[in-house]
Amino acid sequence: MKKIALYWQILIGMLLGVIVGLALSQFTWGSTFVQNWIKPFGNMFINSLKLIAIPLILGSLIKGVSDLKDISQLSSIGLKTISFYLLTTVLAVSIGLTIVNIISPGKHIAEETRTELLMRYAGDISQKKIDAQRHIESGPLDAFENIIPENIFAAASENINMLQIIFFAIFFGVGLILIPENQSEPVKKFFDSFNHVILKMIDLIMIAAPFGVFALLAALVTEAPSSDLFIALGMYAFSVLLGLAIMIGLYTLSVWLITKRSPIFFLKGILPAQLLGFSTSSSAATLPVTMERVEEHLGVDESIGSFVLPIGATINMDGTSLYQAVAAVFIAQAFGMDLSIVAQLGIIVTATLASIGSAAIPGAGMVMLIIVLAQAGIPEAGLALIFAIDRPLDMFRTTVNLTGDAAVAMIVAKTEGKLKKVKR
Ligand code: ASP
Predict the structure, then answer these.
(1) pLDDT tens across 88-127, in order?
(2) Distance CA 267, CA 263 (A)
(3) 258: which of 104, 234, 247, 283 is 20 to 30 A away, CA to CA?
(4) Is the CB of residue 381 less than 8 Å from the CB of residue 117?
(5) Mean pLDDT throughout 387-412?
(6) Among 128, 160, 352, 361, which is best to mutate for testing ligand 1, by the most ligand atoms less than 8 A from CB?
(7) What percent of the residues of the chain are helix, what percent strand, and what percent coil, each to the nearest 5?
(8) Which of 89, 397, 400 to mutate to test the pocket of ligand 1 (most atoms within 8 A of CB)?
(9) Is residue 87 one of the residues assigned to a domain?
């Protein structure tokens, strides 16, 4: 019998998760059952993905950098990567702003719905405000200062310090390039084998993926708010989703035009990672799978993928920046504010920076949205308006975030002559 493709297995898992979650939430005992007996399996799955993230970045980035010919090749790849990432983020924000200005979802929200949402979710946003405050209080160069860890083991003890690990790995790789071949060889060989082990571990984790997403979605469905909120906020959600869909179209088109790889090839290759991003709402947790798909199924050489993708997971969040732009203007519209062109240009800058600063974990984009709101003088209380449907939108924007990383990885690989043919 032919084996069912991984993305089908994951899709079936997701679908069954939604069905079982919906069915069980009809019973009073159902939600507790899901929380106690199904959700933990979802968490175990996410934990195992997170577990692999730091060893994977360390191993593959050191190997990837040390495989480069010289330092100038590294800086050329670095420059291209950062430029493409900035370009796609600014494009995403601009698309978001255009859509939200045309559709004007905030003007369709009824007075009672607004008051009800503001009252119901006002309490929930206070923690987010505290989290955002921490970012606001930091100095202008803090983000750069923090990239250099003072202790590699301390840095490796928190998944959130991904940029620090990336810094160490690149630095170590540079050292490795600069020493004589006979001295670097054993270390390179070690990291090569280390990498193979990690990749095998990812393969093993992926066997559990259909069950993992089943558990994650069943739990999510039982925790979801009532559907009338979705309808009230429908125009807003539609604006975000439309923008995200356009982004996926643009990535596919750019990959097609620049790398000559067909849309089907690209989308089929990245689909399992997209489905996991959707189910986990975390590009950091999905990173191991994104790397595996991009390197083994989309043909990006390891020396490029291991560099472009971990950096992308931390700083390139096109879906998040687009959502932040739409949400900020939506809230302004709902409060009857008219944002000037200057204020909207300001949103392009702050949403770009805020998305770079957002952690690759569920809900991070919403915390950073507070900064965008504050800069534009939009009332933070408006966060309560979008709180209820943030999680479903988070699932979609995370999918876009990692698809953007994959597209840029392919384009950078192509320009460096490091895009291989993939045997099917
Ligand atoms: N959950 C998103 C991610 O991990 C970040 C966000 O927009 O909240 O990419």
Answers:
(1) 999 999 999 999 999 999 887 777 777 877 877 777 777 7
(2) 6
(3) 283
(4) no
(5) 95
(6) 361
(7) 85, 0, 15
(8) 397
(9) yes
